[in-house]
Amino acid sequence: MNTKTKKGKSKDSKKIRVALAGNPNVGKSVIFNELTGGRAWVGNWPGTTVEKKVGKAKIGEYEVEVLDLPGIYSLTAYSLDELVARNGIVEEKPDVVIDIANAANFERSLYLTISLLEMGVNIIVALNMIDLAEAQGYKIDAEKLSKLLQVPVIPTIAIKGYGLGKLKEAVTRSLKIRKIPEKIVDYGNLVEIEIQKIEKLIKRDTELSLKYPPRWLAIKLLEKDRDVEEKVKSSPFAEEILKQTKKSREILEKQLKKDLEEYIAEKRYEKALEIARECLKTVKAKPLTLTDMVDFVTTHKVSGIPIMLTMLYIAFKFAFNVAAPLCDLIDWFFGTFLYDLTMSSTLPPLIKSFLGDGIITGIGSILVFLPNIVFLFLFLAFLEDVGYMARAAFVVDKIMHKLGLTGKSIIPMILGFGCNVPAIMATRAIEDKNDREVTALVNPLMSCSARLPVYLIFAGAFFAAYKGTVVLSMYVLGLILAIVMALLFRKTLFRGPSVGFVMELPPYMMPVVKNMLIKTWERSKRFLFKAGTIILIAAILIWILSITGPSGYIGIEALEDPYLLEKSWIGALGHFLEKVFSPMGWDWRAAAALFFGFVAKEVVVAAMAMLYGASGEEMLPSILAGIFTPLTAYAYMAFVLIYVPCLATLASIRGELGIKYALLALIYEILLAYFVALGIVFVGHVLGIS
Amino acid sequence: MKEKTLLISVATGVLGILYFVYAGITLYNWIAETFIQEAGSVNNVLGLFVSSDPGCAITLITVGMLMLGSLYYKLDDAKGVSCIFLGSLLGVALLVIQLLIVIANVASIGVSLLSGEAAEYVLIEDVLRPEIVLGVGSVLLFSFSILKVRQITGK
Question: Which of the residues A249, A644, B91, B99 has an alpha carbon 20 to 30 A from that of B154?
Fold first, then answer.
């Protein structure tokens, strides 16, 4: 292997850029957090990082900008995450790329390492999870690997912080002496001759060959890489280069008698295997691990689904019952202490009503659910970090696969339990356009945390004995509807074959408390932020619309007098919507509250609290118990689950798929919500349920 | 050693059946309360308070199924040990969650008193639940399953 040694760039400033690359679920985000002290999402399942993230770190004398790239297996341009990762390297030209290789899945990691070396980047290999490799019965000779690859190799156990100091030292060292192997894979004489022909033409364009390594461009052109073809098209020699590529491809495919792209990938795998064979040392026969034993049960066709439901049931019990005293405390603070303090103050009545009935009631009715949401996210973070969520995805994937849907949808769908906005962005990892669009369109049906306050109010009022189960049923209903709608879309608007999906199940691990807390905070803070911004504005708007009407200012008495409230703007809107919802038995205030849920689903509760004149969380369920029946309440919960995605989610669909699809999502979800709610009421009546 | 395994097998079988029985009663209660209002629910069986929560029934069935599954695969086989390990682990998790709920309910009483409201709470109904009583049995089986897992994995 030829090696090029360059003296490191002398920089006036000591600012450098380091990129983290690696397979999914290899520990990139852990290393990113360790280097930057940051809070990147860390999950023990693949697909956590969809976009590149940027953080700052200080390594030795250097100010480092760290790029956390999406997890990828290769550097093709088939999926958006691979493209994001590749462009993060090619376009942003990091000074060092830390390639985090999974020691427990060594050969596959080496494929990416080889692809990175072909790009001519200055890499350091962090051989992560060496403890797991040893537990599997083999050792990797890091020194030998370093010699074979001609780049530094640092064994690490990122989750324990092991080896990270040496990794940082290696970064500073590699800046001084950069080792970039010129040719890591020999594709055989036939192919090498054609690569050289294309390379020679590329080198004629100095600008292009300075920007991208010519050999890499030549190989990628032979692989029919569309993105690289586009890059080359800007060259004044584009015509000649592409003509030569076409000619070379024809010659090679004729002589090799196989698809050239496949041939090149095979050669890389051969090289990866060759290196792996030389560096791997089996120390003992692979014993049965705890992960193997647990997986036998958690992924079993009979026990997989019941275990998943049990895990979710425990999560909801933990979130709703265990967090209850904290909710009570917040409720007392807002609904009694702060409300009474405001109302008994000497402020003018209008200001008192604005603060008490508007802001305190509106915000308090939402913040009271903060402990539930924090506890739920904490438990889900625990399940993710232990490694269980990947199994849950695997179990659901089996069903989806039988229905002809792509398993890759399941990760964005489970992310949707937190918030639909990042979940829709996560669909970028799906290669097939149809699959990606369908997954994004059905994602709002996955019950995000914003719907929880609505469920909890109704579940507390009507199903207190099994609150957790009723809320769980909403999540299951959302998942079933998402699968049904995806199937319907695939059979009608988005026809075509579905791409297969191979999911890597990570080993079970003891979760790191710090990571769990970071993740819980990152998810919960969205809820807090919304309470302080969108929900606050919506609460003020609802208050104004409640004390004013078509005839002008009604007065704050409207908030206590149902007759006056009916004459307000909200009354007019509610009465209009009431006609639409009359088959479900919802009154005009419940209908009006739904209208405001379009801004954010939590606002439904804030609007109800104001419209029903409930200052405390405990008051609202008792008022609702006199207006709804368990059946109409359940239908209302289902409607809130399904109807219009919030503004942020719609904007996200628009951003990812365009305005046409955002409108499609809006319309189909309103119709679906209406008919599902109607269906629940109808079936309930038939079964004799009130 | 064989006698011990036999004893554990019997205990696992009995516990698995009890989980199933309580799951059945829980489901019956839910159906009675939701669909056939005139049918009375069964609140106390063998001194344990049974809920009408269908979600709870699913979890009890899951634990019972795994425990009986361990007998199907046999306890000296890795698959059988996997079943008893997971089953008893879930049984212990249900026990811990129920204990946390008891603590939370007591704390809620404290909050109610702080806000000057009258509060009533029957502790015994939350403590004498199948999740807790059967969960104690699961703790014993869990400790046994850990030993078996260590034997198999060599750790």
Answer: B91
